[in-house]
From TrEMBL:
Cofactor(s) required for function per UniProt: Mg(2+); Mn(2+)
Cited PANTHER family: DOLICHYL-DIPHOSPHOOLIGOSACCHARIDE--PROTEIN GLYCOSYLTRANSFERASE SUBUNIT, DOLICHYL-DIPHOSPHOOLIGOSACCHARIDE--PROTEIN GLYCOSYLTRANSFERASE SUBUNIT STT3B
Protein name, UniProt field: dolichyl-phosphooligosaccharide-protein glycotransferase
Reaction catalyzed: an archaeal dolichyl phosphooligosaccharide + [protein]-L-asparagine = an archaeal dolichyl phosphate + a glycoprotein with the oligosaccharide chain attached by N-beta-D-glycosyl linkage to a protein L-asparagine
Length: 837
């Protein structure tokens, strides 16, 4: 009889768990359905899949390269951030997972359609799978119903977790959330099992593997998940730090209550040792220590964590041996930590700086240009003002319930000392601090909100008798057929009403927001797609293999590009689109590379880059920036400049913010509606305004070569301000949403005219949209005149830009009563030839 009991218990558990597993599977399908609702905005045609946001395009670009060189992927990419290139700071695992699956499905030769389709669905799959570890964490903190409610809440969670796991948003964030949650789940289970079995270092000595087996296996799996998490996001040691801080708290609790702490040391050392071994092959020693991007930092942080567990275990034993009062443990622990920091500052200042600066980077509020990065701004501040609007958008009522639940957890930890509750409390507190610093971490906190809200809801349900119902179910149900009669006899109206109230108050607000937010996916609009496909087809090939893997240059050197290569200057938001859709090399990208400007003080030198180019107050200043981008004085940093109306309106402030010099671009004026901030003179003098608002008219070396279709934007309002305040005569109309300009030498048109005469050269330009505008320059003759003009009147030539925006006829030169026409060839424009009139 005794020998059969464990088997019967297992069978009983399986039978009792069957309804839960079915329910969790259904909830995961609900999560997947919500995330694929806007599929029509992703699969916009048979030939084009529109991925969301910015970074998803870069991930897909890496997937394409990985598949061409399988299984070798990129570590350095010279086809962005021209002329420096960029190291790949994304982890390799996310792209490898996509490549591995499509290689299997495609029998080793997956087509582009398969790659793009699976890539689009992948984040939705990851988002749905996150339901599973959330359920188990909830279950082991508060029971089955806590787990089920938590699973349901994460399935319908709105905000960043939804937007980053929705179809088409093929970025590593959904994988971050899944693997960080798996890491915390397995570590939590190992802690529960280790404490339950009361394992100790003496069991290692006696080789009691039966006792040690399950805690060690769970801790080892936690280490695997930690390594996988690091290989998805280099900043994953943040969660390693959370585990160490949890351990410090739990060590203190156990020491104060005269309990063994061996179990913590054993699972902690195992977890971080396995994680370190698995991450070590991916370390790039040349990247030093003071970086998150797969440097020695990842190994050193794991060694530090292992050392912390060893130290805390030894401290517990030594204080007990010396019969110190229990309260001395936290005092000695904190004191020695401070001593260790001082020692590190002396012997390893780079590590010390990293240890001190990292919390400020993660938890601190950004200023200057960094404050304009949407995902890096505080969730509690907008425009410098405190707000809870973003909190509601991301978590609905769950945020407020999570705060209440943390207080309830703290009370429970003080009474019961359960490690799973301590871990959830510490984990949640630090991710709450993280979203104070950067709202991007909201997709992490969604997991905490789901579990904490479920914990709160479960306590409320217990008051209405659900705990007794659950206990009775676990005692009585031996087969599936017994479930129906059990519910019929035991489920009461107060159970149903309390559950309905929880669903209405706790679940429905998030679900309602999720359904609103899952109607579209974002990403490049049709104007950008059209413009970049034109660029791909109509500008010279840079002469580099888009799918090749290139070696990084030696430290201090720049990549050896062929002479045919050129950059494309645009705002950093659009860099990955330019690279992946246009197959051209952006100067700036969403890694915040190539922005230029200043970081800490207005006293700094304004570095060349996108911010300094577009805010430049003259063509000469802008061209100097373009020339300074490339270290070779004979080469310019870019050949093409791409502007969109967002850069000319809403995003212009971000450009100036990165230079730390925002004064004068906007001014307050009295209107019928009161005082309003409108563009000022400094704005209209900027290179961005010259290009987009004024179509580049009057510029000597920049010509529009393509205009996208026209959108309904704020552009007419900006032109109205210029006309009213500065006596302009601009047509107050919308023009192309995206405009592409080319930087050229410009043909030199020279001639003679009476001294003192105002000489004007002009031409009517017809854009690719059939819109016309007048290009003109004027100067006062000193007996001669000279103009540098960027437009060819004779059309494009083979091998160069196949522009579809050009003059409708020859230039007209006029002064006094004289008018003359002059034709300019494309060769004249590209080579800077002199044309005498």
């Amino acid at each position: 009889m005794e020998n059969n009991k464990p088997d019967r218990d297992i069978k009983s558990q399986i039978k009792n768990s069957w309804p839960y597993m079915v329910l969790i599977s259904f909830i995961a399908l609900v999560a997947f359905y919500i995330r694929i609702r806007p599929s029509e905005s992703v699969f916009i045609s048979e030939d084009f899949i529109r991925f969301g946001g910015n970074d998803p395009w870069y991930h897909m670009r890496m997937v394409y390269t990985l598949l061409e060189n399988y299984p070798r992927g990129m570590f350095y990419n010279p086809l962005t951030n021209y002329p420096s290139g960029s190291y790949i700071h994304f982890g390799p695992l996310f792209d490898q997972m996509i490549a591995f699956v499509v290689m299997i499905i495609g029998a080793g030769s997956p087509g582009t359609e398969l790659v793009n389709t699976f890539g689009a669905y992948f984040p939705a799959i990851l988002g749905a799978l996150t339901v599973i570890p959330v359920y188990f964490i909830g279950k082991y903190v508060g029971g089955h119903k806590t787990g089920i409610i938590a699973a349901l809440l994460i399935a319908v969670a709105p905000g960043q977790f939804l937007s980053r796991s929705i179809i088409g948003f093929t970025d590593h964030h959904a994988a971050e959330t899944l693997f960080s949650t798996l890491f915390m789940m397995f570590f939590m289970l190992s802690a529960i099992k280790a404490k339950e079995k009361e394992i100790g270092f003496i069991d290692l000595k006696s080789k009691d593997w039966k006792k040690l087996k399950s805690p060690f296996i769970l801790a080892a799996i936690a280490g695997v998940m930690y390594a996988a998490f690091q290989l998805i996001w280099p900043g994953a040691p943040l969660f390693g730090l959370i585990i160490v801080i949890f351990a410090a708290v739990q060590y203190t609790i156990d020491h104060l209550n005269n309990r063994s702490t061996d179990y913590l040391g054993m699972i902690g050392i195992t977890t971080f040792l396995i994680g370190m071994i698995l991450i070590a092959p991916f370390i790039h020693p040349e990247m030093g220590v003071s970086t998150f991007f797969y440097s020695w930092f990842h190994v050193i942080s794991a060694i530090a964590a292992i050392g912390a567990f060893v130290f805390m275990s030894l401290l517990h034993k030594e204080l007990n041996r010396r019969k110190f009062k229990p309260y001395m443990y936290p005092i000695v622990l904190v004191s020695l930590l401070l001593v260790g920091l001082i020692f590190t500052r002396i012997v390893a200042p780079s590590i010390y700086s990293l240890a001190i600066d990292t919390p400020a980077i993660i938890f601190g509020i950004k200023t200057g240009g960094a404050a304009t990065i949407a995902e890096a701004s505080s969730i509690f501040y907008s425009g410098g003002n405190f707000t809870l609007q973003n909190v509601w958008y991301n978590f609905a009522v769950g945020f407020y319930l999570s705060i209440i639940a943390m207080l309830m957890l703290a009370y429970s930890v003080a009474r019961k000392h359960r490690p799973q509750e301590t871990l959830l409390l510490v984990w949640s507190f630090f991710i709450l601090l993280a979203i104070y610093g950067q709202n991007r971490f909201a997709y992490y906190y969604s997991v905490n909100v789901a579990i904490l809200s479920a914990y709160f809801a479960s306590k409320i349900l217990n008051i209405s008798g659900w705990e007794d119902l659950e206990n009775a179910y676990n005692r009585k149900i031996q087969s599936i057929s017994e479930i129906g009669p059990f519910l019929k006899n035991n489920l009461k109206i107060h159970h149903i009403l309390s559950l309905a109230l929880i669903l209405l108050i706790v679940v429905y607000p998030g679900y309602s927001l999720a359904m609103q937010q899952s109607q579209g996916t974002g990403g490049p609009n049709g104007y950008w797609i059209e413009s970049l496909l034109w660029m791909n087809e109509s500008t010279p090939d840079p002469g580099m293999d888009f799918y090749a893997i290139y070696e990084a240059p030696e430290k201090g050197e720049i990549f050896d590009y062929p002479d045919s290569v050129y950059g494309v200057m645009s705002w950093w938001d659009y860099g990955h689109w330019i690279e992946t859709i246009g197959h051209r090399i952006p100067n700036a990208n969403p890694f915040q590379a190539g922005i230029g400007g200043r970081r800490n003080s207005i006293e700094e030198e304004n570095q060349p880059g996108a911010s300094t180019f577009f805010t430049a107050q003259s063509e000469e200043e802008a061209t100097a920036v373009l020339e300074a981008v490339h270290p070779d004085p004979d080469k310019a940093g870019a050949r093409y400049v791409v502007s969109d109306v967002e850069m000319a309106t809403g995003k212009f402030y971000a450009m100036s913010a990165w230079t730390l010099d925002t004064d004068g671009y906007y001014q307050s004026v009295q209107t019928n509606a009161g005082y309003q901030y409108v563009p000022g003179e400094r704005y209209f003098n900027s290179m961005e305004a010259k290009l987009h608002i004024f179509d580049g008219t009057g510029l000597q070396q920049y010509r529009m070569v393509h205009e996208s279709p026209i959108g309904n934007t704020q552009e007419p309002g900006y032109k109205n301000v210029y006309n009213v305040l500065y006596g302009g005569s601009l047509a107050e109309i919308n023009t192309g949403y995206v405009k592409i300009f080319e930087y050229v030498e410009g043909a030199q048109v020279t001639g003679t005219a009476p001294e003192g005469e105002t000489v004007t050269i002009s031409s009517t330009i017809r854009t690719s949209q059939g819109r016309t505008f007048i290009y003109s320059q004027s100067e006062t003759s000193d007996g001669t005149y000279s103009f540098t003009v960027p437009y060819s009147t004779e059309g494009p030539i083979s091998g160069e830009t196949q522009f579809d925006t050009a003059p409708t006829g020859p230039y007209t030169i006029s002064y006094g009563g004289t008018q003359e026409e002059v034709s300019v060839s494309e060769t004249d424009v590209l080579e800077g030839n002199v044309i005498e009139v």
